[in-house]
Amino acid sequence: MFDLKDIRSRPEEYDANWARRGLEAQTPKILELDEKRRGVQTELQEVQNERNVKSKEIGQIKAQGGDADSIMAEVASLKDKMGELEQAERDLSEQLNAILSAIPNQMDADVPDGADEDDNVEIHLFKERQIADETHPDHVEIGERLGMMDFETAAKVSGSRFVVLKGALARLDRALAQFMLNTHTMDHGYTEIQPPLLVTTDVMYGTTQLPKFEDDQYETTDGRWLLPTSEVVLTNLVREDILENFTEPKRFTAYTPCFRKEAGSAGRDTRGMIRQHQFYKVEMVSITRPEDSKAEHERMVTCAQTILEKLVLPYRKVILCSGDTGFAAQKTYDLEVWLPGQGKYREISSCSNCGDIQSRRMNARYKPEGGKGTEFVHTLNGSGLAVGRTLVAVMENYWDEATQSLIVPEVLKPYMGGIETISA
Q: Which pTM does this prediction carry?
């Protein structure tokens, strides 16, 4: 989670950083518990040493035929004392870990200050957005006109926030995923992974989904968790490893369904495919040395941008402000695609450098070249892209009102078996 030695050396800097997220000072309680725990550890060591000394005395007395009953009683008392101290150490460690697990990451210095998404800073614009037109249909209306997007049937079988895609629209969705995977594996050097969709509590904890975001996750009756994002598995591929000859980033990508309760989104984005309980995403994850993670972050967001630019979709790149930066992130870039049916930009990719907050939880390390010991790796993750939202963007940006048809983007035609337009 965090380097306690580092927190002890500069607590004011940690609190100042967390204050940018709107948090009160955290280090006083952390350092108080840390001091108590270290005091108990010192006392425990002293009692252990005393017990060892007296145990040797017992042997010497018995060897000489003497009476060791009184010393044996002292040793038994010291053993009881050790048990009490060991329990106290466990209790303090649990309290300390609970606090540290609930505190977000430290942010990079160049993250702009701000309260929420309204304070995010645009740093790149691709392709001028279309002028908002109130008559432009959104993806729900387009899907209904085509007869290939069915929310009513989905609600019958699964409830709200689900969809059934049919025919050529389902194929277009699949084409998007194949195009993204091919681009990331063949052009960007990512290794494709087909991960499990059920994971353990330790794995969810490792990437900070637990305990902070427990209410948004689906837990099975046998204690496993449905994957909220393939980042969880891809990042944990190096858990409890010590990487040797680690000079280049490890890059993984996967296409999976993702499952989220969307517990905190009541009343938001209830129309259409923007926010669902089950959605599909192509994820990118990188594992790097600390000195390489900033450059890898820039590279990762460029990989996501490439997908949007090949699809010729209007988008903008923003850096998230302090109040909008995610729990595990040191710094995050969002890519927001223009949706003419909504007349606004919507997030389609979020790329974050998490530093070592996840690797400390996973105990993922590497051996530096020519150095002694081990260091924690850095982890990064990004959407490359959210497939459902990309389908929404294609539908709204490629809809031809005159012909009442959806034009297939040029780059997707090889995946569509010759289909160039989709009509009812």
A: 0.94
